[in-house]
Amino acid sequence: MPTLHWIGKDKVINHHQDVPFRLLDHQYGALADGTQTAEPTGSGNQIIHGDNLEALKALLPQYEGRVKCIYIDPPYNTGNEGWVYNDNVNDPKIKKWLSQVVGKEGEDLSRHDKWLCMMYPRLKLLHKLLAEDGMIFISIDDVEVANLRLVVDEIFGINNFLANIAWEKRFTRSNNAKLFYSLKDSILVYRKSQLVSYLRESRTEKADSLYTNPDNDSRGVWISSSYVNPATKEKRKNLVYPIKNPNTGQEINHPTHAWKYGYSQYEEHVKDNRLYWGTEGKNPLPRLKSFLTDAQGMVPVDIWYHKDTGTTDDGGKTLTEIFEGKGLFDTPKPVGLIEKILQLATDQDSIVLDSFAGSGTTAHAVLKLNQQDGGNRKFILTEMEDYAEHITAERVKRVMQGYAGQPGTGGSFDYLTLGEPVFTESGELNEQAGLPGLRQYLYYAETKQPLPTETADDNAAFLGQHDGAAYYFHYAPEEVTTLDHEFLSTICTKAGQYIIYADNCLLTPEFMTQHGLIFKKIPRDISRL
To answer: How far is Cα 71 from Cα 424, in angstroms, rounded to an integer?
Structure first.
């Protein structure tokens, strides 16, 4: 498989592993009636302000392998410095990150090198978060689409590439361009695994209007397709046989080509009256009838027209309406584009992630689609820029409440920021992070599963049970904890193995082995205790 190499790649290829785990600090919950609450809403909807690389790492303990649909609209690397969302890879935040990660070598990077260094670790974490039956959609323009395709092939696997969609983002040309003027963006589509093996999108009125019923079939309207195989008789000898026209009694053999179906299938079609020989029954070749009642949706195509999705102008108009005349972004994505993605890639209970949230179009589309079909999709947005609260979150609040004559969608979300790292620079557990966050991280580190919200064990140290093992975090902030017989007497969970974190252990190795006990020392400085 072809791979892409650039200056700095060796420094970032495993950088996602070095990104520190941070906790997420809850700032407030936003409700549909416009009020804010200090307590979490429990909605599952989140807007996170902070560097999206660290935010994605912070999401792993709860969401690894659970996100059904990811949509990202990363910087296109045009070098345009005039946008509110700085689209220039010389952005100070990116330059600082590159100097820390890539080092002095980063001074010689071209803007393409810098962009790829920025994207690679983020794509690695997005791959971890995506469910096995999930899909990722990435908007990009022609500047980096070729490079991005090779990078995503490398991370997601070339066999998991599904489409390079051409999206008609505009439909009128600008004569200000000196050479070509682009009316399209690309949307790269990948799956996590081959569990995504069948896709259909909703049927349209135009598609249904093609069905007719010229022979008054009692089964309703239908369309027909050719019965002739594109392959010749020589290539598909097993599909060569005589067909009888029941209206004329004539046996039909195609002069050059085979039929599309085997003889047994042909017999079923005859028995089910699926062959159509024309209104007078004298057509030279049959066609196969397919009824609208049997239709299962439409195969998606890789050209998306503006009339079906909206344009960037529509996205800007919507944003202006929401913010009462203020134009805040030049080319935001239209809600219709994200809705089309959600209809194709989610069910009603899916988790949807957008780690380059911008103006919050993805959350808007999720709430709107839930309102239309009664779904319970959840959105997670991350945004590193300072407008995360007064534009991204504010837009979602106004969509929930209603704007410019549009009824509110309802719903709620929680606004979070990046909190304390789980570990200190010396590698010890950061006790400033708080017990809930430490418990969540340790259980994830052991099991790669989210911490259960409910447990059947009354022991306060119990984390959960997974694959026959029970996990305990015997921790107290201001005292040394000990794994001993007294602590064991408080355990009521039956398991094949017990993994117990504590500061000390007073049990003998023989006793530990006999009872399936594994002691793990809590990595903290207990000298102060």
So the answer is: 33
Query: How much of the chain exceeds pLDDT 90, in percent?
Result: 70
Q: Residue 33's Cα: distance from chain center in Å?
A: 29
The CATH code that applies to domain 9-202+298-421 is 3.40.50.150
Q: Can you read off the two tokens belonging to residue 418?
A: 């990046």
Give yes or no for residue 59 having a pLDDT over 80. Answer: yes
Would you say 404 and 377 are in contact if contact means Cβ atoms under 8 Å apart? no
Alpha helices (H) in 252-385, listed in sequence order: 263-271, 306-309, 312-322, 335-345, 361-373
Angle at the Cα of 319 from the Cα atoms of 316 and 325, rounded to 5 degrees: 100
Task: Tell me the whole-structure pTM to 2 decimals.
Answer: 0.85
The torsion angle over the Cα atoms of residues 522, 525, 528 and 529, rounded to 10 degrees, is: 10
Specify the 3-state DSSP secondary structure of 195: coil
Calculate Rg over the CA atoms of the chain.
Answer: 29
What pairs with residue 353 in β-bridges?
A: 70, 380
Residues 6+ apart with CB under 8 A from 205: none
Burial class for 492, CB neighbours closer than 10 Å (0-12, 13-18, 19+): exposed
Packed helices 312-322 and 335-345: angle between N→C axes, nearest 10 degrees: 110
Tell me the mean pLDDT in the region 363-384: 96
SS3 content of the chain, % helix, strand, coil (to 5): 30, 25, 45
CA 63 vs CA 16, 49, 68, 436: distances in Å: 16, 17, 10, 16
Q: Determine the pLDDT at residue 88.
A: 52
Residues 6+ apart with CB under 8 A from 331: 169, 312, 315, 316
Give the start-to-end residue ranges of the domains of the chain.
Answer: 9-202+298-421, 205-294, 431-521
Name the token pair of 59. Answer: 């999401």
* H-helix or E-strand spanning residue 243: strand 243-244
Q: Is the dihedral of CA 486, 490, 495, 497 positive or negative?
A: negative
- Say if CB 69 and CB 340 are below 8 A apart: no
The predicted-structure confidence for 140-178, as pLDDT tens digits, reads as follows 999 899 999 999 999 999 999 999 999 999 988 877 878
What lies within 8 Å, CB to CB, of 292 at 6+ separation is: 208, 211, 220, 221, 222, 223
Quote the percentage of the chain above a pLDDT of 70.
93
How far is residue 370's CA from residue 179's CA, in Å, rounded to a whole number? 43
pLDDT in tens, 405-462: 999 999 999 999 999 999 888 888 888 888 888 999 999 999 998 898 877 777 899 9
Beta-ladder partners of 25: 417
Please give the structure tokens belonging to residue 201: 């999108």
Q: What is the pLDDT of residue 315?
A: 94
